[in-house]
Design brief:
Number of helices: 5
Shape: elongated
Order of helices and strands: HEEEEEHHEEEEEEEEHEH
Strand content: 15-25%
CATH topology of one domain: Elongation Factor Tu (Ef-tu), domain 3
CATH class of one domain: Mainly Beta
Distance between the termini: 107 Å
CATH superfamily of one domain: Efflux pump adaptor protein, beta barrel domain
CATH architecture of one domain: Beta Barrel
Length: about 325
């Protein structure tokens, strides 16, 4: 009986390793197939993403709002009589910002007008002298043939007529100068009232009531918030397909994802940030390491969106350029503030 048991157990024990190897091979094949399928699906997904999204857009979070800030400065000297604005105040074009005491300017206008009146009187007198000398000359010339007038006398009369004409020309030139001084004095009088050059928001107000101003003294800034634009600093390797006229979608840190701004590329800066740095990089040295540079790209914003969601200078933005877009001239005109 023991021999029969041993004989029956031998085939079962001999088949077990083969079955185990077959199962292992099948598992490896399945796992490899799944891995290959996963790689293929991932590759197809990446290709699809790159074709439809990745190759179509370039983006950067190194972007900031900017504006052509109007610097308001004094054009004449004098004490400040009134300051009508404070920082953050909204103003319109033509609003009175600052008033300079106009006492000296009014006196200058009166003095210039008095000089002009005297000059005009001198012109009238010189005109009369010229007319009188002309009549005398005609009389002397008529008597020359009869010998009643000598040649010396006639010469004196001719010279007198020439002097009278020269005096009239000098008086007229003096009047022209006096008129210029009157015009200048009136312009200076008008400059005692300083008005806003643009619509915008007051910033960096430095002027104080009673302060004695000198010409070119900076007083304050007016930021035209309705004409904001964005400087987006893209890496140079991102700009191969970027062109003026392409549309840009922007997001500000101020409003977050709930507000989308739209703009159009206007152009590129004349150099990278490093090129215009206070201490530019010395790339000619032996210890040079190549660094990918960034080039500022100017993006014009939609004025209607700015009116709905105002921005301020220096705010952080995220910019994404649609490389397949190309705004038509009509679209560009519509987006122009």
């Amino acid at each position: 009986m023991s021999e029969s048991v041993k004989a029956s157990d031998t085939p079962a024990s001999a088949a077990t390793p083969k079955d185990t190897d077959a199962k292992s091979r099948r598992k490896r094949v399945i796992l490899f197939s799944l891995l290959a399928l996963t790689v293929a699906v991932a590759g197809a997904g990446y290709y699809s993403y790159w074709k439809h999204v990745g190759s179509r857009y370039v983006s950067t979070d190194n972007a900031y709002t900017a504006a052509e800030v109007a610097v308001v400065a004094a054009e004449i000297d004098g004490p400040v009589a009134a300051v009508n604005v404070v920082d953050s105040q909204q103003v319109k074009h033509g609003d009175v910002l600052i008033v300079i005491d106009d006492t000296d300017a009014r006196l200058a206008v009166r003095q210039a007008e008095a000089d002009l009146a005297r000059g005009r009187a001198q012109v009238a007198s010189a005109t009369s002298d010229l007319e009188r000398s002309g009549i005398d000359l005609q009389r002397r010339q008529a008597l020359v043939a009869s010998g009643s007038v000598s040649g010396d006398e006639l010469t004196k009369v001719i010279n007198g007529a020439g002097d009278a004409r020269a005096s009239l020309n000098a008086a007229r030139a003096a009047v022209a100068l006096a008129q210029a001084r009157v015009d200048k004095a009136k312009v200076d009088l008008g400059r005692t009232v300083i008005r806003s050059p643009v619509d915008g928001v007051i910033a960096r107000r430095e002027v104080q009531l009673g302060q004695r101003l000198q010409p070119s003294t900076p007083l304050l800034d007016v930021v035209p918030v309705s004409d904001m634009y964005v400087n987006a600093n893209f890496k140079e390797v991102q700009l191969k397909k970027v062109r003026p006229g392409q549309s840009v979608e922007l997001e500000s840190d101020l409003y977050g994802k709930k507000v989308a701004f739209h703009g159009v590329i206007e152009g590129f800066n004349g150099g990278t940030g490093a090129a215009f740095a206070l201490i530019p990089a010395q790339n000619a040295t032996g210890n040079w390491i190549k660094v990918v540079q960034r080039l500022p790209v100017r993006i014009r914003l939609n004025p209607d969106e700015l009116a709905a969601h105002p921005l301020r200078v220096g705010l952080s933005m995220n910019a994404k350029v649609d490389l397949r877009s190309d705004s038509s001239p009509q679209q560009l005109a519509r987006s122009t503030p």
